[in-house]
Amino acid sequence: MAVRAPEVVFSAVFSPSYTADCPFPLAAGVRMTMLRIFRLIRWEGVFLLATLVTFAAAASAENINGTILIKKRLTRKNVTADVSIYQRGTQVKLGKDMEQDPIAYERSRVVIYLEGPGLPAADGANHTPIQIEQVDRRFSPDLAVIPAGSTVSFPNMDPIFHNIFSLSRVKSFDLGSYDKGETRTVLFPKPGIVDIYCHLHPNMSATIVVTPNRWYAQPDRTGLYRLPDVSPGQYTVVAWHKSAGFFRKSIVVEAGHDSTADFFIPIQDDAKPDSAAKVEARNLESR
Length: 287
Known about the structure:
Elements: H1 6-13, H2 28-59, E1 62-69, H3 102-107, E2 110-115, E3 130-131, E4 133-135, E5 138-140, E6 143-147, E7 150-153, E8 162-167, E9 172-178, E10 185-188, E11 192-198, E12 205-211, E13 216-217, E14 224-230, E15 233-241, E16 245-253, E17 259-260, E18 263-264, H4 275-286
């Protein structure tokens, strides 16, 4: 018995008139109903195949784990007076750091993210907007990490004016002066390091790390971090410290195995990024 191709069978079954392939032509209504059923089955098959492919890709994704090793303080102490002698009107006492452990504090200044040719670009439009508050003459938090394309709001919580600005190459802006209860929002479309200041209070500074994709993390108080759901391939793990600059490690992620990338952040007496770190910052901004 000859086996007919699916296209021939389909054409025969839904033929509106008598043919050699279809001795019993179907009525128009029945024919349309069966046609809809056939299309539904076909698209459900396509959906099932796409689901299986996605599941297989997710099943092969692994984790990159690591430890940030820091042994001494890298960040200079803040010597700003609690209440500025130049301040007029309402006085606002300067806020203090909540973290008392100096090494844990240094670890909190680290951001880790992933680079690689096969990684999809960040979709910041789907990222929940974050806030950097101006409170007690400080930015809180004074270090934030977002994927490119994200927005950040800057609400003023102090009973005094602030004027937030940045001269960074990757994103420059000036939000002007605004009072308590008001806020401003900024979009960050490109990856890079953005340093933020206040025109009215020189002690105020913050940094936003804008990453090129969704694979980024900050270590916990003990220095441990994780980049989850990384597909097998060759990548570069980048660690950035607010005072010490950039550090990089090449890594190969293999199916069925987690990978490890530990970083020792070296001690620098002047606590400033060296020239290599500055070049790396410019390279990130140009991507």
